[in-house]
Amino acid sequence: MANLELWETLKESITAYTGLSPSTFFTVLGIAVAFYYLVSGLFAAPTPPPRQRSYEAEMEPLAPPVQLGEVTEEELKVYDGSDSKKPLLMAIKGQIYDVTQSRVYYGPGGPYALFAGKDASRALAKMSFEEKDLTGDIAGLGPFEIDALQDWEYKFMTKYTKVGTIKKTIPVEDAPLAGDTSEAANNDAAKTVEGESSKSAAVESVQQPKEVTVDGDVKE
To answer: Which keywords belong to this entry (predicted)?
Structure first.
């Protein structure tokens, strides 16, 4: 009973002080509250997102580059990124660089993974991904391709550490074995012996003493 009397009193007060019916008053009040929360939500400071660990932080720290010195192209192939415990290497113009820090590009699954473990000078100059161009042979490249290769080389020199060079193998012509004489050599030797024999015969003929007979004839 008391609650009902309180409600009737409240309705009379609302009508007396606002000039609105109780239903209209509570409708306006609800709209005002909703508008307040809408405006406060627009201008409130955004809640900072939860801190996430960066990709670099999750990666293990890179080991310092190890100097290889001079290696063959076959030996360079083992540094193509297939073994995560070994550095990731590639070469330009015979100079080997450690590109481990860019494993996302040159490592397995990367866009340039094809170049790892190789001297990819020709492929980089031509921006080719063909197997035949994965070589350090840059013969026959055009001026624009040479310029592109120089740009790549400058980038590698300034960004990565040089750790070695590729050993160039120079083919050696077969030399004649000791005791092996060719037909030409035999012919030269025969001519030399023949010439020496002729000379000896001539000298002997000149030095041979001559006998003089009683008749005055000269006898050999």
So the answer is: Cell membrane, Lipid-binding, Membrane, Steroid-binding, Transmembrane, Transmembrane helix
